[in-house]
Design brief:
Blueprint lengths: L4 H8 L12 E6 L15 H4 L3 E3 L4 E5 L6 H12 L16 H7 L2 E5 L6 E5 L3 H25 L5 H22 L8 H12 L5 E5 L7 H16 L3 E5 L3 H4 L5 E4 L6 E3 L5 H11 L1 H5 L3
Parallel strand pairs: 3-7, 3-8, 5-6, 6-7
Antiparallel strand pairs: 1-2, 1-4, 8-9
Helix pairs in contact: 3-4, 5-6, 7-8
């Protein structure tokens, strides 16, 4: 079914007197004027130059487009503007790879239904840094425990136990969240475990290509986890190439291919049409390689 003009207006413009959707983030818009920044990336992207007001009307919104369309850039800038915790090796305000995103974020105006700092921002490529950081924290805590044992070997058991307590508590919390560690299972399993352990009710989640390490079956498991969080008043904005994730029931899909952002139905998506054609007849595509 084609998206009607009224649906487009509902998605791409914020109407006066709009009822509260119950969502955290209701819209974003571009502050004017941009000035000299307009001659630099990411302001040179057509999507950014033509951005007026983008309204979020559903608990799950997908940003879809070809590589270079600007979907990840827009999501990164949104994460910086919202100042969400980042699942990665650096926070959004310190990560050097987000410098351009922070420049764009300074020109974004966010309209909140319910302001929140719960939730997180995650880029698939940052996962390895996060897993390494957790492993290093675990190693350092275990070293600290060994140091306490050495320093308190001539003291009472009571004094030693008190000294060990904070390190044992942190190690216990890590095991409760991540078991033996995210580095002890496959990349896909660890990635999914991260979602399941870090999802909290009433949060805003900005995910950039979360399907990257996940098998098709694991992507369905991620959909189930997202659905559970939506039931707990969570909101998701996801940049993706995955036709599986895009099939989330009731999601709004925004296409960034072209010069404007427009809502599309699932069956109109080029990703979906191409995948169907390929699976129906892969030889027709592969013989031309």
């Amino acid at each position: 079914m084609s998206v009607t003009q009224s649906a487009k207006r509902k998605t791409l413009s914020r109407r006066s007197g709009q009822p509260d959707t119950g969502l955290h983030l209701r819209s974003l818009s571009l502050r004017q004027p941009i000035g000299q920044a307009g001659q630099e990336f990411p302001f040179t992207l057509q999507i950014i130059q033509n951005l007026s007001t983008l309204t979020f009307d559903a608990p799950v919104t997908f940003l879809v487009g070809e590589n270079g369309s600007g979907k990840s850039t827009l999501l990164e800038a949104l994460a910086c503007a919202a100042d969400l915790p980042a699942v990665g090796s650096e926070g959004v305000q310190r990560d050097e790879t987000l410098e351009s995103a922070r420049k764009l974020a300074a020109h974004l105006r966010l309209a909140w239904g319910k302001r929140t700092h719960r939730g997180f921002f995650l880029r698939a490529e940052d996962f390895f840094g996060y897993a390494r950081r957790l492993a290093q924290i675990k190693i350092e805590l275990e070293k600290d425990l060994n140091t306490v044992d050495e320093d308190y070997k001539d003291r009472s058991n009571y004094a030693a136990d008190l000294a060990r307590m904070p390190y044992r508590r942190e190690l216990y919390d890590l095991r409760q969240r991540y078991g033996n560690g995210l580095d002890q299972v496959s990349h896909g399993e660890a990635f999914l475990a991260l979602f399941q352990t870090r999802f909290v009710p009433d949060g805003l989640y900005l995910l950039d290509e979360p399907e990257a390490p996940l098998s098709p079956l694991r992507q369905l498991a991620l959909i189930a986890a997202m659905k559970h969080m939506v039931e707990e008043k969570g909101q998701f904005i996801v940049a993706t190439h995955s036709p599986i994730l895009m099939a989330y029931p009731g999601a709004v899909i925004l296409c960034l291919d072209g010069n404007t952002i427009r809502p599309v139905s699932y069956n109109e998506l080029e990703h979906v049409l191409f995948m169907r054609e390929f699976l129906n007849n892969p030889e027709a595509f592969l013989r031309h390689l």
